[in-house]
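debug: dumping io for the single-chain case to check the tokenizer round-trip. Nothing else runs in this session.
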Amino acid sequence: MRRILLVVLLLVGLFPVPAAARTLLVVGDSLSAAYGMEVPSGWVALLGKRLKLQKPGYQVVNASISGDTTASGLARLPRLLAEHKPAVVIIELGGNDGLRGLSLEQMKHNINAMVAKAKARRARVLLVGVELPPNYGRSYTERFQSIFREVAAGQGVALVPSLLDGVATRDEFMQPDRIHANAGAQPRLLENVWPHLRSLL
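debug: decoded output
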């Protein structure tokens, strides 16, 4: 019996079991859920492909839902954290709060709570900011965008200032609704995220 146990231990040493892949969880809305295009064309799917090549120890779970608000994201997050135990969490929410004219103070509270819950699970967090169309008024849009900076600074987490940077102002990159980026813009969205994410991996 001891001889069999010794052989087993030797084999384990010679052929170590591969470490389980660490999970990168994306909690977002339609901008991350590949709205209006095939899912493999979306920036999150493109991120998964890049990680397979450059950071093969990671797997991506895209828990983004079109139409999601910060309130619904906050409600879903505890289950997602418990189920996937992510090493990194990307939070891309707030656009629908702004478009619906919901309370910006409540939006800030919700994002703060999401970041805090992820950090409590020892996950590294990347907060992704978004922009509103200019027709919502300068005062409202500036206050909206400042929330992402304030939460990131207050919580000490990384921030992508604007997911649609270099995209929202270019007609060839936007879908007809002028809110969602098209498939051709998705590589640019990934490049907007990647420099801020890379150091967290």
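debug: round-trip ok. The CA atoms of residues 139 and 145 lie 10 Å apart.
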